[in-house]
Amino acid sequence: MKKLNKISLITMLCMGTVGFANANCVQDDVSTGWTGSLTFHCTEDTDLVKNPISFKVSNNIKVSSMWGLPGNSQFTQNGDTISVTVKKWWPDEAYIAQAGQYYTLSFSPNTNNFAISEFSVNSQDGGQEASKATIKINLPEKPQFIGTSKANVIIYKDGVKVAEMKDTAWGSSQSFEAEGNVGYTINVPAIDNATGSATPANFTTTGGQTQEVNIQYTAPKVDYKGNITISASTPDSTTKTPSYTLTDAQGNVIKEGALNFNAPTNLNDIPTSANGKQYQLTVDGYAENGFNYTAKSVSVVVKNTETTEAKVEYTKEAMPTEKVNVEVKGIPSGKSSTLTLKNDNGKIITSKLNADGISSIDVPKDGENWNITASSFDDYKVTVSPANFTANQNTQNITITFAEQQKSTQDEFITGYWENWKPAQQPQSTDMGNPAHYSTDIAPYTHVVYSFLTLAKNPNPDNPSNTTWDGSAIYESMTAGDVLKFMREYPEGTPNWERTDNWMRVRVDALIKATHDNNGKFIWAIGGWSDLQQTISTNQVDKLVSMIVDLLKISGDGVDFDWEHLHQLADGSKNPNAQQQTAVLAEVLLKLRQALDKAGLQDKQIGYTTRFNAFMADSKQYGFPGFNSDGEGLAIDNWLKAHGSSLNNVVDFVNIMAYDVGPEYMPNGQTWNMNIYKNVLSTFGAHVDSSKVVLGFEPGGQAAGGQWEGMAVDKQAIDYVANNGYGGSMFWAINQPPYNSTENTGLNSDKLAKYSQDKFSNN
């Protein structure tokens, strides 16, 4: 389902005959064995197509696969010489290795006894041709009259732009490969109204020589500008930062921002005139600890080159309070619960609940949002209604209801994926073989989906193999071993050293027990982004089904099929075997359901995880740009209906991956919002019972340029799912730490899963 991190490179536009100079790259480390690896770095940005990576291996070894480099790596072997080129995954162009960045490539040899030598990264013609020349652009140190902008230099040949230098550090130089004995023109666009120029601006290169070009900037015409320093004071210490707005006499907003009570707020470069110009500074009030704080607007005259002080003085007055009436129902005799009210600023009010009845609590009527929780105890469920409120009324009524916990019939799904290569986010024990280690992480989930079992023995997140299953085994991806051997039952007393991959087995057993102790279901996920792009052949269906049934006889409550390349390959192109791939998954789903029922395993669940466009024949009709993966679910459902069944009849749940999509591929360049969620859910609900449709979230950093829509939108979507009969919510991933972001995805998933619990339990 996920790809690993890729190295982010700063790229330079190079067109026509101008490109990067020959590489100057250095080998840093090598290792040999059953996996060979080589680490290197380059001292300048290097095109890894024009400049292939080359090295030799001894002992007549043969290399069968290669991985580790960012991008699409292709290699050839000629005798003992290995040559590697690297392109971007998309678009189809050369991968540029960034100067100073360390890279490691790894490969699989056919023996572990060999040496690596003669590393180089060189142009394919062996060196720079004599007919080539170099243009070296020298930037000055940043002039005082230029702000934070960076220089932009454009190189033209015969009136056509062939290269551009931008976002380069001031005072540095950059060289470009050029044709010899050809005329070039250098253009320097203005920055912050400062005029740019090049010396020389026009020249003819000489083959084998370097033409240096010096860039200069001329200060812009002096404008009348002045500065304002805002000195803000308030009677009490606070962390609040009220907003300010500076407007001119016509009401136009000139500046806006946030005040700082601990230091002056400086507003620079305010337009003025020779005689000065008047502005109005207005500030927002704020509320805190039962008081309202306000300040009057200030009139400010700004004079050329001068700094004018604007004093903002806040006063306070007591604010009214809101009475919160708390009614307690059903609390058992002799039991005690703690009621906690917490606002968004961290203020906490607690109260003990010992008996049924009504009590009241006063909170400041300050417009703050308050969240309400009440502790429970064994065999009882507590419901708080409403679970939050905004303190802007005179009274607020809260009902706390305690009820004996009934055995779950589990009408809703709160599904979380467990990344088997990552540790727990909230471990409750240092022993990963102890179920308590996982108890907090998996607590809010009805389904824990173990990720991944794979068809590939060695799944590759950077370059998933475009091949078909070998038919030997379903592999546990952390151990690369047969999952049936990995999970087999041992006679009591079997020593650990005789148990296959016991270091990992004890973790899986503990996770399963923790899930079952939590009345949840443990689901095996088969597939993921890294797995085989051509899954299985039609004649392998029965073998795969038999292996899955054997696995579920041993352990697990079901399987989830996460086959991500059915219609669209990893590079974005159309899968030439698209029709066969969706047909083979449909056949697996049908035969697996039949085989499980025949074996008396009717309670084992089958899930299908897919992208948001699975039931869109043409996603362009919904505002998307259109994808090769459009309609995968439709194809599966149509095959099943043609064979006397339907997707709805063979699966227990369908997970929607509504994430990992950049704004540029979303309707109107947006992130996910309620209109898009509703459209997607309706397409799924038209083909599968809504109660089986589970909406997926990734509340943090995402792959493929996806941007999280935020906690508030996710909660709105969960509300919609709960109120409209859909199956539940799904999260990638329970234990995912921050990824491409400072947001902790796992902890955010925990919050939303708990929110789902509350919403689903109230419906």
Automatic annotation (TrEMBL):
Pfam short name (any one): Glyco_hydro_18
Q: Which residues form the signal peptide?
A: 1-23
GH18 domain location is 412-750
Q: Which GO terms describe its molecular function?
A: chitin binding; endochitinase activity
Report the EC number(s), separated by commas if there are several: 3.2.1.14
Identify the InterPro entries for this entry.
Answer: Chitinase_II/V-like_cat, GH, Glyco_hydro18_cat, Glycosyl_Hydrlase_18
Which GO BP terms sit in this record?
carbohydrate metabolic process; chitin catabolic process
Is Translocase given among the entry's keywords? no
Name recorded for this polypeptide: chitinase
